[in-house]
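(Deposited chain)
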Amino acid sequence: PGTGSMSAGVRWIAAVALTSGVFIGTGLVHVVPLAQDAGIAPEAAASVLSLMTVAGIVGRLSFGRIGDAIGGVRAYLISLLLATALIGWFPHLAGLTAFYALAVPYGFSYAATMTCMMVCVREMTPPQRRALDTAIVSLFGWAGLGLGGWQAGATYDLTGSYTPAFTIAVAAGALSVALLAGLWRAAARHPRVATA
């Protein structure tokens, strides 16, 4: 594409960043109060988030290399599938050990999605547009994070339970997977879709 136009692929990635941000924001903002609701002390509940973010460091580094090896869209799809499959289990956990056990793979996979998002932008943009497109996709991602945190709080206030809020997060993750799978299929049939 020319320096003045965003590729169709980047527009798709921005949409995925928005929807995936909803489920990521839900987990990041509400895992600590959710753990407290399950009877875990505040300090121990906060350690669940700490463990999640430490696992996220490993996920970011690992999927950066995976994205380089198999392509950004494929790596992004794998990480989204894993994170979406995991997040819905949080409201059903009881005990700190169970929260820790889920925090590690979820933290690994949700953080990986953020790295893969940037790999996709790099693959789909010319150098002259890369900084702007990265900023635009990041803006959509951060908007999704804010929306996810808000929706989970609002849903909890309405229902008194985190189960509906995390169900919405799963639905947002499934929508992200569907959007990205659509991009993957379209690019497989017409390779210029991602960059045109």
